[in-house]
């Protein structure tokens, strides 16, 4: 019997959360969470939009592409996010119109009240700008995005960008591991992850001004903004390698039985660079206790790099990292930057 693979956790977490949100307990919990969010710090004109994002969570989970980020990529994202400068998000930051991303190693970050939480993943789905703000998530546009993918998302974004109206964006949901104070007697067994924050993330919106809410309370956005953007950026660089994994037969049967819409998982792992060797030379095998970066004293850094047409390039931060040494089955160890002090 084939051993269980870690990436299967992404599929199971998404399916379990989707099923739980279709129970009376899940519906009641989500409704109570919306009421709490709507009554604390949400402007009146945003209440309808927030309700729309909450109401689409169930459908988003059913159709989202499961993405699994391996533990070694989580380690790199943690190290790289420390020096990442939050940028406006753009459509090309996302690989699919709708996705559910699961971290093998959750990130411990403070929430807006300073309490520690374990960020276990996030999901997104498209939000389209239309002239009527009450139709911000037009069902027809959403269906077209599902059929045509990122091609349609990018096309709509370019066609509707105007200075006098909000642009397109994504409905973003953050997920955490259930806390130890979860009331199992009242709420039952929790799913592997729980939604903790729902928000629109508009394209071209800068981080400035989003660090506090309308009444001046810190939003905690800087923590998740850095980690999520770093993750999305690293997923598209040569540093990582992506491949599709077919859900197991048992998973697919369970999904088909319940109406779950996904059968594949996008797995993101750290790429191990091959060192060039002269023809005919067989290097002696080295024995390491762990994997590590080599080739740069700093362990990696961000560099602005232009994208798009030369006439109108977009500059985005790219992580410049040395290559990795050590066998793939060894743990990755990223040492903190060393500080050198010169004195006389």
Mean pLDDT figure: 81
Question: What structural category arises from helix and sheet content?
Answer: alpha+beta
Indicate the multimeric state. Answer: single chain
Helix content: 25-40%
Tally the helices: what do you get?
10
What is the helix/strand order? Answer: HHHHEHEEHHEHEHEHEEEEE
Low-confidence stretches: 274-278, 337-344
Number of domains: 1
The fraction of residues assigned to DSSP E strands is 15-25%
Largest sheet: 7 strands, mixed
Write the layout of secondary structure elements.
Layout: H1 8-20, H2 24-39, H3 44-55, H4 57-63, E1 65-69, H5 71-81, E2 99-110, E3 116-127, H6 139-148, H7 150-160, E4 169-176, H8 184-187, E5 194-202, H9 221-235, E6 240-246, H10 249-258, E7 264-270, E8 292-294, E9 301-307, E10 314-320, E11 323-325
Parallel strand pairs: 1-2, 1-7
Antiparallel strand pairs: 2-3, 3-4, 4-5, 6-7, 8-11, 9-10
Helix pairs in contact: 1-4, 2-3, 5-9
Write a short abstract of this structure:
Helix content is 32%, strand content 23%. It is an alpha+beta fold.
Notes on the structure:
Mean pLDDT is 81; it is low at 274-278 and 337-344. This protein starts with 7 loop residues before the first helix and ends in a 19-residue tail after the last strand. With 344 residues, the chain is an alpha+beta fold. It is globular. It has helices at 8-20, 24-39, 44-55, 57-63, 71-81, 139-148, 150-160, 184-187, 221-235, 249-258; strands at 65-69, 99-110, 116-127, 169-176, 194-202, 240-246, 264-270, 292-294, 301-307, 314-320, 323-325. The strands form three sheets. A seven-stranded mixed β-sheet has the order 5-4-3-2-1-7-6, with helices on both faces. The relative contact order is 0.16. It has one domain. Strand 1 (65-69), helix 5 and strand 2 (99-110) form a beta-alpha-beta unit.
């Amino acid at each position: 019997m084939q051993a269980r693979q870690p990436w299967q956790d992404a599929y199971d977490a998404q399916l379990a959360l989707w099923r739980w949100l279709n129970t009376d307990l899940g519906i009641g919990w989500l409704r109570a969470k919306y009421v709490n969010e709507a009554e604390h710090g949400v402007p009146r004109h945003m209440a309808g939009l927030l309700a729309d994002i909450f109401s689409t969570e169930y459908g988003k989970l059913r159709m989202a592409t499961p993405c699994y980020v391996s533990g070694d990529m989580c380690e790199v994202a943690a190290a790289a996010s420390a020096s990442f400068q939050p940028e406006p998000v753009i459509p090309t930051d996302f690989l699919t119109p709708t996705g559910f991303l699961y971290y093998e190693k959750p990130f411990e970050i403070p929430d807006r009240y300073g309490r520690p939480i374990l960020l276990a993943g996030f999901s997104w789905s498209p939000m389209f700008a239309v002239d009527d703000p009450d139709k911000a998530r037009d069902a027809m546009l959403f269906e077209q995005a599902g059929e045509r993918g990122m091609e349609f998302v990018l096309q709509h974004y370019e066609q509707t960008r105007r200075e006098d109206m909000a642009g397109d964006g994504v409905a973003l949901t953050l997920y955490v591991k259930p806390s130890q104070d979860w009331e199992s007697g009242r709420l039952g067994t929790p799913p592997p992850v729980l939604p903790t924050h729902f928000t629109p993330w508009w394209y071209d919106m800068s981080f400035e001004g989003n660090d506090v809410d309308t009444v001046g309370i810190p939003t905690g956005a800087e923590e998740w903004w850095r980690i999520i953007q770093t993750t999305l950026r690293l997923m598209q660089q040569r540093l990582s390698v992506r491949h599709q994994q077919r859900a197991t037969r048992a998973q697919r049967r369970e999904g088909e039985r319940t109406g779950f819409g996904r059968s594949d998982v996008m797995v993101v792992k750290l790429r191990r660079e091959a060192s060039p060797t002269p023809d005919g030379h067989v290097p002696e095998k080295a024995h390491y206790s762990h994997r590590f970066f080599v080739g740069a004293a700093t362990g990696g850094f961000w560099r602005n790099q232009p994208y798009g047409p030369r006439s109108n390039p977009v500059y985005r931060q790219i992580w410049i990292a040395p290559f990795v040494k050590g066998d793939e089955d060894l743990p990755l160890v990223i040492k903190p930057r060393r500080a050198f002090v010169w004195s006389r």
